[in-house]
Amino acid sequence: MDLRAELVPPSVSQQRQDELSREIVRIADLVLRGAENADEEIAAFNARTGHDYVALDFAEYDASRDVAEFALEAARPARPRIADVTTDELVEIVRRILASDPASDYYLRLLEANVTHPRVSDLIFHPPAGLRDASAEQIVDEALRYRPIAL
Prior knowledge:
By secondary structure, this protein is an all-alpha fold. The chain is 56% helix and 0% strand.
């Protein structure tokens, strides 16, 4: 299934990725050196990107990804909320996550922003016994069944 433009990861220019990569490396250096202005620089970076990174994200990003991947994530929306996303679209998003699509990180953020289930990623990566080897449809059905408890 093709996804409509609003659901596809936005393209990011190489110039923007390079700019953010330089910022990430600079901030990581500040964090690792314990510079007093590291928190201010992280806050400014977050204000420019719309994300909520913390010092640890900069200090340890290279343990799980390279700077280009971090920059691409930072350049894209942190919580891409789509008001009229359909069940079929959510199923396709989960399919792409399960297939380890190159944009899986973005699709996971998209899924988390568009369903109320607080641990929707666990339904995919750490499923309960009833969802082991579940289809994308079953995962989405379970996620959409969730209802918050009124306190």
